[in-house]
Amino acid sequence: MILKNAWRNIWRNKRRTLITASSVFFAVFFALLMRSVQLGTLYKMVDDTVDAYSGAVQVHAKGYWDEKTVNNSFLRDALMESKIFELVNVRAVVPRFESFALASSGPKTKGVMVIGIDPDVENAFSGIAKRVRLGDYLTDNEQAVLLGADLADYLGLQINDTVVLLGQGYQGVSAAGKYQIKGLVKFPNPKINKAMLFIPIGQAQMLYGAENRLTSLNIGLHNNLLSIHLSNKIKQNTNLEMYEIMPWEEMMVEFVQMIKTKNVSSTFMLALLYIIVGFGVLGTIIMMVSERMREFGILVAMGMKKRLLALIVIMETVLIGFLGLIAGAISSLPIIWYYAHNPIRIEGEMGQMYEEFGVEPVIKFMMEPTVFFNQTYVVLLIVLVSVIYPIAKIASINPVKAMRMN
Amino acid sequence: MEVIAINNVYKTYVESEIEVKAVRGVSLRFQQGEFAAIVGPSGSGKTTLLNLLGGLDTPTAGEITIGGTHIHQLKPSKLIDFRRDNIGFVFQSYNLIPVLTAKENIEFIMQLQKRAKKERDQRSLELLEAVGLADRVNARPAKLSGGQQQRVAVARALASKPKFILADEPTANLDSVSTEKLLDIMEKLNREENITFIFSTHDTRVMKKARRVITLEDGLVLSDVIK
Ligand SMILES: Nc1ncnc2c1ncn2[C@@H]1O[C@H](COP(=O)(O)OP(=O)(O)OP(=O)(O)O)[C@@H](O)[C@H]1O
Ligand SMILES: [Mg+2]
């Protein structure tokens, strides 16, 4: 009865209901698109970096993050690796030995990141083999390397050429080696293309005189948003005197800052938008109540409890609010869904700016339920606030006075 | 059987420091099955008296009992329930809920009383039949004439099986044909079902139909004539 009455009541003034519901609709529609594109693009950047390269959580020897030298490496521990692999949400545990070196082709020399990888494990983690544009992927422990495509261009090297690496090894030994270029890789992240070189981990350990040592264990997750939770879990079973465990949030500080800044600015904008919409809803409710005071008076006179009357008016407000909410959600969903699966590529200058930032120039929408729920809470809040006025009004109804009004 | 007793009731309104003595010491008794009109010039206190009687307003002094209950000693929410179960109201205008059909308007008050669907259906149709609107069951108020609306209002007032019906100038907005018809229906219900009607009016034709005429002036009972 409450629902039926409320439903019919809101259509007594069709135009007003439609205008109010549409204002909620536009706010929800706009907020959903804006939030999902913001978060989608930001988290796409995170996923790109995390899944293609860094892992969502890393284990280092204590002090490595602040001073990334081979001296801050640790002895490989198979038991620890298998224990981490057992944890929920972990999809890969990737050993790495990374350091700097000078890469030389003869005429040209450039500082590069040497990434020692286990070819099979690495490929299972990031699908790196698919990124080989020319030549072949690495196998086992061969004395060969993969070069970032831009780096090869710079050095004027091609596949099957030889590259010389020079650097400083573990505990001061000097590191030098000659490697055949087996393939060229191209990543979405331009930073990798310009400065990275991949080598079987055994070769890297040999080059740097660090037998069976790692600079990091990179842990791939099914859901990168749960990285902090997982890193805390690993910490519980780890000697923190020896190791440091870092989720991507701690490693990509500027990213987290960016996400926070965007959150604050968009929250502010959306708050403003919703305040305007909220006043619109409130205005409608106030108008509606003052028009119907006489009717309310008659209902109370006839024996309708004020509580029930208030419930009907609350239901009317909820209906108007949720009409807008649902319409907004339904009409934005296909757009969000489409662009979540078909990201928009940014061309031109703007795209270059992204690349310089070290990220793939892509706009992507995020289809996380939280984005939707947040709008629901806001609309609910608007409804709750707007409903205070009619409740107060109804509570103080005096049927005689209400009926004397015209 | 005595249904209503009004004992020396006063009502004084204070509006912007001016006192208006709308009712000044009225005592009246009504029996089951009465068909009584309250008449008097504008401002004489008819509406005020009916409102006091219906528990919509509180007397400044004196007391009103309905079937032995001191209605103004009831807690507000109990008083609302009491009105729902014991008193049927017909107001001058804007009586019906505009979004509900004629039948739903009648059912509505029974829903408040939590009556079963079957009973509600049956009774609302019976009542519409009784007020001669069996063919307008699903019409919304806007589609009914003023007279038809008032007849639905009478049917609705009866739906809760009240002890009596209070009607404040129920015919004020009706033409003479509709007035006649409404009164005939009220009279018939009164005669055949022994339902008590107390109504106020300005209309001399309405007064003529009443079996008891109470005349108010300046908040006092000037005369109380039983025909
Ligand atoms: N709520 C109120 N506040 C202040 N004064 C009121 C109120 N209700 C009625 N009055 C005053 O009380 C007096 C009696 O009013 P009431 O409405 O009872 O008269 P009435 O006989 O019904 O008149 P009418 O025939 O015009 O309907 C009038 O002077 C009126 O102005
Ligand atoms: Mg009056």
Summarize the structure.
With 406 residues, chain A is α+β, with helices and mostly antiparallel strands. Helix content of chain A is 56%, strand content 20%.
Structure commentary:
The complex is a heterodimer of chains A (406) and B (227). Chain A is an alpha+beta fold. Helix content of chain A is 56%, strand content 20%. Chain A has helices spanning 2-10, 14-54, 78-86, 119-126, 149-155, 190-195, 201-207, 227-236, 248-251, 253-291, 293-302, 306-341, 348-356, 369-386, 388-395, 399-404, and strands at residues 57-61, 74-75, 90-104, 109-117, 132-135, 144-148, 162-168, 174-185, 196-200, 213-214, 216-221, 243-247, 344-345, 362-363. In chain A, a hairpin with a 4-residue loop joins strand 3 and strand 4 (109-117). The two termini of chain A are 27 Å apart. The relative contact order of chain A is 0.18. Chain B is of the alpha/beta class and 227 residues long. Chain B has a single domain (32-59, 68-226), classed as P-loop containing nucleotide triphosphate hydrolases (Rossmann fold, 3-Layer(aba) Sandwich). In chain B, a hairpin with a 2-residue loop joins strand 9 (212-217) and strand 10 (220-226). Chain B is globular, with a radius of gyration of 17 Å. Chains A and B meet through helix 1, helix 11 and helix 16 of A and helix 2 and helix 3 of B. The site of magnesium ion (MG) has 3 residues of chain B, from helix 1.
